[in-house]
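Student: Please help interpret what follows.
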Amino acid sequence: MNAITREEFPSLLEIAGIKLRLKRELRFVPEKIEQWQDRDFIAVMNRSKTEGVIVAELDKMYVVPFRLQKRTANQMGRVEAIICDICATWQRGSTSAVISFSKEKGSVSFLCCGDLLCSLHVRDKTSVSKLSRVQLRETISPSQRIARLKERLQSIFREF
């Protein structure tokens, strides 16, 4: 993904029709985003990390609003581990979340990595990714995982 500057970001939000309230709440600090070249998307969130936009550079530029909710404990007091619906990375329950995208006909939700660093996870740039490969016994190459992530993002954002 190409780096996005502070000056470019507001125009992306405007083109995508992001609501004014959400625009005001977003905390975009491009200087803190590392490894731009290794990212297929970035998540820009509000201060409480409950809402934001995903900016994805795929066949075109997508800017899609979302809500993020940390998963809660079950009756036994545990948050079960999940496999991220976006990048297929195994996540401990405490580091997982549910991401929801609003559409004209309702909303759609997915289990996801709580940090939304899926692009780095599929490229084995995080400690979580290494643990995930062991847990899932996954033997496909990073390039195959990247292709799978891009296909999944395309299927999610196709309707936006």
